[in-house]
Amino acid sequence: MNNCLKGLLLVGGKSSRMGSDKSELVFRDGLSQRERGVKLLESVCDQVFISVAEGEGDHVIADAFGNVGPLGAIASAQQHDPDATWLVLACDLPLLEEKHLQDLVDQHTADSAATYYLSASDGLPEPLCAIWSPATCDLVLESIQSGKRCPRSVLGKITGQALPSPGLWPLANTNTEADAIEIRARIDGTTTEKTITLSYFAQLRELSGTDNESHTTDSVTPAGVFEEVRAKYQMPLKRKGMMVAVNGDFTDWNHRLTEGEELVFIPPVAGG
């Protein structure tokens, strides 16, 4: 790349589903997710900045567009330096490695407006582990001004370089306690393989093409299994608003799965 590559670590989210500041959680190497994210970006970028909802300081970029989410953070960075190419990274990706960022940098070319991974879950662009070039500035700003805040939809409108997914877990976010349980188990090497029965209702039955199936997994919670199912069937549905039952009883996504259990996912609207 001919122009300067700058890193932007996103830490300005509300972390409402986690219940505490995700950027301060420690998963690996004794570093908070904020510290580890900076370290990862420093390994491939010329300069690194931290995106925050509000505040000031060296290498800090405050959101200049109000409460519009990650796209506002990207627009704020582009306003800060419209000539830079920005490697944008969410802070809550504990299983992401330096090699994943290096692959993005190596594959980015001068004629690519953006370079990004495709999601293992739904095949759509992953905008928060991606390179955004100056060519995206106008479209990002236009989207915000028109009330469209989805960074994925912006990437879908440009000529970008799409890389195959690095797998389900490298780009797994820690949005909830269940996510944290899954990721810690993988870091600690405490996952164990087990076979369970999955039953599907309503939309999930239609998307999977079956009522039930046997499923072998090393996930430790229903949350992890659901992400595996999403990836297997490329489901557009997410866990938000969905209920889960184990062995006929409703439970939460943190439930620790054991061999032979029956797991049922129930979408928000299960019938007419």
TrEMBL record:
GO terms for molecular function: GTP binding; metal ion binding; nucleotidyltransferase activity. Pfam families: NTP_transf_3, ThiS. Residues 7-156 form the MobA-like NTP transferase domain. Gene3D superfamilies: 3.10.20.30, Spore Coat Polysaccharide Biosynthesis Protein SpsA, Chain A (3.90.550.10). The keyword tRNA-binding does not apply. GO terms for biological process: Mo-molybdopterin cofactor biosynthetic process. Keywords: Cytoplasm, GTP-binding, Magnesium, Metal-binding, Molybdenum cofactor biosynthesis, Nucleotide-binding, Transferase. InterPro entries: Beta-grasp_dom_sf, MobA-like_NTP_Trfase, Molybde_CF_guanTrfase, Mopterin_synth/thiamin_S_b, Nucleotide-diphossugar_trans, ThiS/MoaD-like. This is MobA-like NTP transferase domain-containing protein.
